[in-house]
């Protein structure tokens, strides 16, 4: 229970996922965000901060070395054709004594490497697709990339099953996504390397566990913004509304939802059922940053259309104590 509760509160506090001496140099929880956003520049910043810590402490970080972080940043820069970051990484690799990486990155920087743009790949089939649908499709591609870089075949397998189970996706798009996931699986090394092990450890440290008190806002069927204070206690929970009514959350699970939730998906998410009065439905939350989520909700069972969005932030507390938490002020819609 302690592990799951700590994960909900930002599990980097767990000893096996933390190197306290480096905390004043770098926040490794930001690395997952950089990977998910394909942000080579931010990944390079983190690698350089690690290198600075190693220089001062005369040792590597227990979770991820600067050299491995530089290789990761270079991989993202190659995938996104970020020449400016590639040039910066050449200097950084030399500064940590990784001449092989410096030479490799320098060659790539000179030649350039044009990568496929996700929107271009899907251009023909997305001409009639809404922005929300496009965001969903791109989230699947990003998740495949994140899992490939982490050598996480387990998540790739779950993602593949999730896509194959989608009934509301045009066959052309489903075929494209499954082929990209299959390609990502093929690119995972047969034997897990040190970088993959480190990234999976970081992913585990930031896993979205169903515990704690959350300030949230959802949009009701009439377009009204409704504040909901949520308490999660594992597989169940409750949400408290300004009018004093209390809804129940149950059958909460982690990972990809059973159907398309109508919003971007992530393996780092929660899904389940809600009940208020005599009405029931489904909900999905995807972790989008430290202690933040964006998601959706609908009536009936998974597979029914999304009604609208639901988002929020962790407000503290480990859950399990019971009783209502204060109804929060409105949480601004992210982005």
Describe this structure in words.
With 335 residues, the protein is an alpha+beta fold. The chain folds into three domains: 2-111, no CATH class; 118-194; 211-316, Lipocalin (Beta Barrel). It is built from eleven helices and eight strands. The chain has an eight-stranded antiparallel β-barrel. The radius of gyration is 21 Å and the shape is globular. The model is unreliable at 1-15, 114-120 and 317-329 (pLDDT under 50).
Helix and strand content put the structural class at alpha+beta
Oligomer: single chain
Count of helix runs: 11
Number of strands: 8
N-to-C SSE string, H for helix and E for strand: HHHHHHHHHHHEEEEEEEE
Largest sheet: 8 strands, antiparallel, barrel
End-to-end CA span: 33 Å
pLDDT < 50 runs, ≥5 residues: 1-15, 114-120, 317-329
Rg, nearest Å: 21 Å
How many separate domains?
Answer: 3
Strand content: 15-25%
Q: What is the strand and helix layout of this fold?
A:
Layout lengths: L1 H7 L20 H8 L3 H18 L8 H15 L2 H13 L3 H13 L6 H4 L9 H19 L3 H12 L6 H16 L7 H12 L5 E9 L5 E9 L3 E4 L5 E9 L14 E8 L2 E11 L2 E8 L8 E9 L19
Helix pairs in contact: 2-3, 3-4, 3-5, 4-5, 4-6, 5-6, 8-9, 8-10, 9-10
Describe, in short, the structure shown.
It is built from 11 helices and 8 strands.
Offer a few descriptive terms.
335 residues, alpha+beta, 3 domains, 8-stranded antiparallel β-barrel, 20% strand, globular, disordered N terminus
């Amino acid at each position: 229970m302690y592990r799951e509760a700590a994960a909900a509160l930002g599990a980097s506090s767990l000893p096996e996922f933390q190197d306290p001496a480096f905390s004043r140099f770098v926040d490794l929880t930001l690395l997952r965000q950089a990977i998910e956003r394909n942000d080579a520049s931010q990944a390079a910043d983190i690698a350089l901060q690690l290198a600075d810590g190693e220089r001062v402490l005369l040792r590597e970080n227990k979770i991820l070395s600067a050299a491995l972080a530089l290789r990761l940043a270079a991989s993202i820069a190659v995938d996104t054709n970020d020449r400016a970051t590639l040039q910066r990484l050449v200097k950084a690799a030399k500064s940590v004594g990784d001449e092989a990486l410096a030479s490799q990155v320098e060659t790539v920087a000179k030649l350039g490497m044009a990568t496929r743009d996700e929107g271009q790949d899907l251009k023909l089939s997305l001409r009639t697709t809404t922005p929300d649908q496009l965001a969903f499709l791109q989230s699947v591609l990003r998740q495949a990339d994140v899992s490939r870089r982490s050598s996480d075949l387990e998540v790739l397998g779950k993602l593949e099953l999730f896509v194959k189970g989608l009934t509301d996706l045009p066959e052309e798009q489903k075929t494209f996504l499954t082929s990209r996931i299959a390609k990502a699986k093929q690119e995972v090394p047969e034997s897990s390397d040190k970088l993959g092990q480190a990234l999976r450890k970081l992913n585990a440290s930031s896993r979205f566990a169903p515990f704690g008190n959350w300030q949230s806002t959802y949009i009701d069927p009439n377009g009204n913004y409704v504040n909901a204070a949520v308490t999660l206690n594992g597989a169940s929970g409750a949400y408290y509304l300004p009018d004093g009514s209390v809804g129940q959350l149950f059958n909460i699970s982690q990972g990809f939802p059973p159907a398309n939730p109508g919003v971007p998906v992530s393996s780092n998410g929660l899904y389940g059922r809600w009940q208020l009065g005599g009405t029931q439905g489904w909900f999905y939350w995807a972790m989008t940053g430290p202690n933040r989520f964006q998601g959706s909700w609908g009536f009936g069972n998974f597979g029914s259309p999304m009604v609208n969005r639901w988002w929020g932030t962790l407000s503290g507390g480990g859950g399990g104590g019971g009783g209502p938490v204060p109804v929060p002020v409105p949480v601004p819609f992210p982005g």
